[in-house]
Write a structure and sequence with these properties.
By secondary structure, the protein is of the alpha/beta class. It is built from nine helices and nine strands. The strands form two sheets. It has a six-stranded parallel sheet with strand order 3-2-1-7-8-9, with helices on both faces. Strands 5-4-6 form a three-stranded antiparallel sheet. Helix 1 packs across helix 9. The protein is elongated, with a radius of gyration of 18 Å. Bound molecules: nicotinamide-adenine-dinucleotide. Nicotinamide-adenine-dinucleotide binds at residues 22-24, 26-28, 31, 33-36, 39-40, 98-101, 116, 184-186, 188-189, 208-210, 225-226.
Length: 237
């Protein structure tokens, strides 16, 4: 049996499957990841996306953020669409993502836990007023609230805690999962990558172009394009 057939069998037999993914899920939508060659991290220091950098150099943060982290034209790719189809077909319970681009929801996934927030939600640090992505896109320099306060994205920067309750919900879903699909993530960003330790089942599947620290623990490892692998698995169901 090929690895793809095994993946399709795992999916068809699963009742509480969870997908846990990262930036590699969106590279096929034209959004660079952090750690692939040509990824964002190879061009800019990780420190720019940190709380201390944001507070000390907000103009520079926003220059980088607008140029390199916002992709308002991006469309869901084959991996997003396959995951949404799996949920509709009853083969996937939830998507847990480290991504901030909102593409899983755009693709039609309903239960999506965003561990690192979303570029689509923004708020004023002074009065708390909410703003859509458009407010950041249409502003120049520092995006300002009507009250004059600084608008910031509800995105988890390095040095910041995860949004309250989201990791706990993800942890519960992973604990209950009978299949855990992990893909498009280098599994190096914590605490997110720590989610794997809560999985108790015997069907841990790794779908990633490059090796990850969890490959040795996986029951099935598939290399290559996550969009191609997931689309092919869905086509077999
Ligand atoms: P990462 O950049 O550290 O790792 C991405 C992984 O995906 C790599 O191992 C790479 O080999 C693999 N990959 C890339 N394209 C792939 C493809 N088409 N098919 C299969 N595998 C592919 O990403 P990470 O682990 O998510 O950590 C980066 C952090 O940066 C996260 O916290 C995330 O929030 C943030 N980030 C988000 C986005 C986004 O929202 N789209 C983009 C860049 C970074």
């Amino acid at each position: 049996m090929s690895k793809l057939d095994t993946l399709a069998r795992f999916l068809s037999e699963a009742r509480r499957a969870v997908f846990f993914g990262g930036a590699g899920v969106s590279t096929e939508s034209g959004i660079p990841d952090f750690r692939s060659p040509g990824g964002l991290y190879s061009e800019a220091p990780e420190t720019i996306v940190s709380r201390s950098f944001f507070l000390a150099h907000p103009e520079e943060f926003y220059r980088f953020y607008r140029e390199r982290m916002l992709y308002p034209e991006a469309e869901p790719g084959p991996a997003h669409l396959a995951l949404a189809a799996l949920e509709r077909m009853g083969h996937l319970r939830a998507v847990v993502t480290q991504n901030i681009d909102g593409l899983h929801q755009r693709a039609g996934s309903r239960l999506v836990l965003e561990l690192h927030g979303s570029v689509h939600r923004n708020h004023c640090v002074r009065c708390g007023r909410r703003y859509p992505l458009q407010a950041v896109l249409e502003s120049e320099g520092l995006p300002r609230c009507v009250c004059g306060g600084l608008i910031r994205p509800d995105v988890v920067l390095y040095e910041e805690p995860l949004p309250a309750g989201v990791f706990e919900r993800a942890e519960a879903l992973v604990r209950e999962a009978d299949l855990l699909l992990v893909g498009g993530s280098s599994l190096t960003v914590y605490p997110a990558a720590g989610l794997l330790q809560y999985y108790r089942g015997s069907r841990l599947v790794l779908l990633n172009r490059t090796p990850t620290p969890a490959d040795g623990r996986a029951d099935l490892v598939l290399r290559g394009s996550i969009g191609a692998v997931l689309s092919a698995a869905v086509a077999r169901l």
